[in-house]
Amino acid sequence: MSTLFISDLHLSTERPDITAAFIEFVETKAKQADALYVLGDLFDAWFGDDFEDECVVQVKQAFRNLVDNDVPVYFIHGNRDFLIKKRFARESGVTLLPEHAVVELYGQPVLLMHGDTLCTRDLDYQKFRRKSRTWWWQGFMLSLPQRLRKKIADDYRAKSKAATAMKRADIMDVTPSEVEKVMNDAGVKLLIHGHTHRPNVHQVELSQGQGQRVVLGDWYTQSSYLTLDSDGFDLHYAPLPTADATS
User: What would the pLDDT profile of 70-87 be if each residue is shown by its tens digit?
Assistant: First the structure.
């Protein structure tokens, strides 16, 4: 048995191929796991827990089936779905975790996060992030009509995509000193995160010795997940049925 980790699926009705791959993953690999951790950006956008479409219904039911079969599901918010709240958790059965969570897995503490807080050189995004995580901003957004919330989210995604295309690659990646800081502060030698869409295993020099940073892959052209057990970890990939679909 092992614990599974996924991130950056960006599920939406516009990409039914990714949703189908996710459902298959849940019904096969995840059902055999000790637990499933979702490290953010499960959805391409989240307009509020009162929003529901075919994709959302499928995801809720898939999670509920897992939990009902004694496979716990844990969720950390991403930069696309940070408005997921208690109603979604209640209806799907998932457990919401803090944005930086240290969990004990197979005898070692592991730091889990989405990964956007590590990209400290992206000043414009970090400024927006600080504002969008305040209670007053979220309260205002969620008080708007659902159609207006969706339009605002769509507009923001379009602007974000255009801005991202103009930024240097190093700005979009993690800041090494921030990685070292959060791992040292948490007292861990293993960090797992997503967000950057650059799956890899990195060695990190820490005050307590050598550590590792594992980056999960996105699901735009492949399904990507991490398995962790008492023997170590492995990154896995499988092509989507329509890998040539545009994101």
Answer: 999 999 999 999 999 999
Query: What dihedral do alpha carbons 219, 222, 223, 228 form, nearest 10°?
Result: -100
The single-letter code of the amino acid at 174 is V
Q: What is the pTM of this model?
A: 0.92
Report the C-alpha dihedral over residues 145, 146, 147, 148, rounded to 10 degrees.
Answer: 50
What is the second-level CATH architecture of the domain 3-239? 4-Layer Sandwich (3.60)
The single-letter DSSP state of residue 202 is: E
Q: Cβ(25)–Cβ(58) under 8 Å?
A: no
Is 122 assigned a ligand-binding role in the annotation? yes
Do strands 222-229 and 3-6 pair parallel, antiparallel, or not at all (unpaired)? antiparallel
CB 218 within 8 A of CB 197: yes
Q: How many helices (H) and strands (E) does the chain have?
A: 8, 11
Q: How far apart are CA 8 and CA 185, in angstroms?
A: 26
| 238, 217 Cβ separation under 8 angstroms | no
The answer to whether 41 is annotated as binding is: yes
What is the mean pLDDT of the segment spanning 201-210? 95
Q: What tens digit of pLDDT does each residue of 102-130 get?
A: 999 999 999 999 999 999 999 999 999 99
Is 164 labelled as part of a ligand binding site? yes
For residue 180, give every residue at least 6 positions away whose Cβ sits within 8 Å of its Cβ, in sequence order, or none: 204, 205, 206
- The single-letter code of the amino acid at 139 is G
Q: Is 206 helix (H, G, I), strand (E, B) or coil?
A: strand
Residue 77 marked ligand-binding:
no
Whether residue 236 is annotated as binding a ligand: the answer is no
The reply to whether 195 sits in an annotated binding site is yes
Is 114 a known ligand-binding residue? yes
